[in-house]
Amino acid sequence: MPPTLLVIDDEETIRRSLRHFFSRKGYRFLEAETGAQGLTLVQDQAPDLVLLDLKLPDTDGITLLGKIREASPDTAVIMVTARGSIESAVAAIKAGATDYLSKPVDLDEVDLLLTKTLEVIRLQRENTYLRTRARGRSESVIPGACPAIIALNGLVERLSQSPLTTVLIQGDSGTGKELVARAIHIRSPRSDKPFLDINCAGLSEQLLESELFGHEKGAFTDAKLMKRGLLEVADGGSVFLDEVGDLPVSVQPKLLRVLESRTFRRVGGTRDITVDVRIITATNKDLLKEVEKGNFREDLYYRLKVLPIQVPPLRERGDDIILLTDLFVQEFNDLLKRRVRGFSPEAQGLLMAYAWPGNVRELKNVVERAIILCAHDVVAPAYLPAEIQGVPSAPIPLPDTPPPVVADPVRAEPDVDTPLEDLEKWHIDRVLKRYEGNRSHAARVLGISRSTLQDKIKRYRLQ
Length: 463
What we know:
Layout lengths: L3 E5 L3 H13 L3 E5 L2 H11 L3 E5 L7 H11 L4 E7 L3 H9 L4 E5 L3 H33 L7 H14 L6 E4 L6 H11 L7 E5 L5 H9 E2 L11 E2 L1 H4 L4 E5 L9 H10 L1 E2 L8 E2 L3 E6 L3 H7 L4 H7 L2 E4 L9 H17 L5 E2 L1 H9 L5 H15 L4 E2 L6 H4 L30 H15 L4 H8 L3 H11 L3
Parallel strand pairs: 1-2, 1-3, 3-4, 4-5, 6-13, 6-14, 7-10, 10-13, 15-16
Antiparallel strand pairs: 8-9, 11-12
């Protein structure tokens, strides 16, 4: 792709000279004579390079520079200042300009500077790509050793090498469908481009359409500025549509058009926009039944399921339950500054016997809860939820400790469905009261530092 150069300058003679010179050099040339026009072009086209005049009729270059950096962080901005204005050049560099030029501009000097800047951009992108690929190879494997997961990883590897193929990921809630989608992206040639995701069930029809396709200024009441949608921002990368079975019927033909022609229009727009994105979708619904009910377009269904992937539920993954448990223990040890070695054999047996209706997401929540509550280096069955222990109710145990304790005031045990944050607050409060407010000892019992305990006391407003 030829580099895109945007010149923002109110002097027609300068723009004409630069346009003639750099168009012959193979650049895709854009121009604007005001800051407002220039910012719109940046938002719409995301140029590689901007030559920005310090003085414009409607704004100053330094102010506009900040808006350009916000709208398109990867765009390199070179400020054009009056000759000898060192203060302006320094201010521009501090504000985020890549470099500066003095007027009157010398075309050969501009050419040399742009060539050097493009080489720096190329090296930065290459380094980012290589780091992403190196990191991605380890992160893109779905954890597990059961036959179904081994087969799934093999399929992900093959799909990754076909970067245009549409993928439909199916499976129960909490099985890790988003993880599969990210793995496909990370392993593909698109890995150095954006991976953007959206939950089709979490937004209203109008907001979802605006998020996907963007909108023009004035397209609806609150559209005060033009906005690029996810499909446009992710150009060259991947877009993950989670819960695609909940996509509104009015939006479905527009998505079908993207899949078939790679074009769409912003809400309120009249111009076709062409993008190169891979569409990855996921659902826990039976889309064929949704088609029969009239809730989902049949042509879109068959267009999405070019290559369907079925993610197995956790209850069918055997020893992967223990493998994932160990991974989550490591994760929460790092996050919560704990040193729990793992789950006891008895606790592991209970985990293996449980049906896991919430799948991997539920297992992760159970491990987090256990790491928060466990005062020892091994998680015993008592720290598991009642439904996993197979008992009507399971009071949360406190560790056996030598210091004298006071009788606990009568307080209701937390419900099974209590959020983890409220559970942590309840547990810290109980430990503090049991040891008469001795914060140093309470911190040791809880397995956290005294400063961390102080922060939590302040956060939860405990006495």
